[in-house]
Amino acid sequence: MQSLKILALVIIVLYVVALVILYVLQTRLIFYPGKLPPAFRFSSRVFGEEVVLTTADDERISALYFQGTRAEVILYFHGNAGDLSGWQFVAEDFVTSGYGVLIIDYRGYGKSSGSISEQGFYHDANAAYDFLIGKKIQPDNIIIYGRSIGTGVAVDLASKRHIKGLVLEAPYTSLGALANEKLPFFFPSLYLKYRFDNLGKIDQVKSPVVFIHGTEDTLIPPVHSEKLFRAFQGKKEMIVVNGGSHNDLNDYPAYRKFVSETLLYFFAAP
């Protein structure tokens, strides 16, 4: 009996230690920012102008601005890993199709100053939107595009600012819900500092929304897109990429068709 009590105590202590570790290290477990030296120069097959945005809380955000031949501009929020040295290349397909693109590195990523925080990311997004307005881009020509972790940034911005449309690639309902799926016995949503509650905000979005998800995405299962799709009551479309996983959707014809055709007709004025 005594040995069972000791075993139970050890299990409880280990469980509590695991909870503490998860709480303390949650930022490192969720975000994997790349870092770039100030002298780093970007290169791409399409020309992008390096710009620095100043946020409402005085952080300096690194961004690349690609001018297109169309009036519409894609405001792109990337995933949780890397930096603009890799993410810059997502602009190529859009620019080739005529769209302008603005893509930022969140605070704590690349050359951007500051530390990672949910509210800070929202400040970064608003600074990016304001940059486009300062460039005389009309709100009706701004299409917000969020990928993975960036869908939380995209939905928040789209729920507050006037835009032409919203694209969500591999979105989640909320970071808490996703974390609970990954670690069900540790109840991470109870102590998670990052909420990114897409499901709670999606009905505040007034523009049309396109959802894109791969059927084989095991990192963020497609059921998250399905729940968001059902919750959103406005004009919407679901693009299912058969066989696609989390990081390879641009390799599939369904995604290529989205860039070359769906973007054009779906967000067109009625």
From TrEMBL:
<feature type="transmembrane region" description="Helical">
    <location>
        <begin position="6"/>
        <end position="25"/>
    </location>
</feature>
<dbReference type="Pfam" id="PF00561">
    <property type="entry name" value="Abhydrolase_1"/>
</dbReference>
<keyword id="KW-0472">Membrane</keyword>
<feature type="domain" description="AB hydrolase-1">
    <location>
        <begin position="73"/>
        <end position="198"/>
    </location>
</feature>
<dbReference type="InterPro" id="IPR000073">
    <property type="entry name" value="AB_hydrolase_1"/>
</dbReference>
<dbReference type="InterPro" id="IPR029058">
    <property type="entry name" value="AB_hydrolase_fold"/>
</dbReference>
<protein>
    <submittedName>
        <fullName>Alpha/beta hydrolase</fullName>
    </submittedName>
</protein>
<keyword id="KW-0812">Transmembrane</keyword>
<keyword id="KW-0378">Hydrolase</keyword>
<dbReference type="GO" id="GO:0016787">
    <property type="term" value="F:hydrolase activity"/>
</dbReference>
<keyword id="KW-1133">Transmembrane helix</keyword>
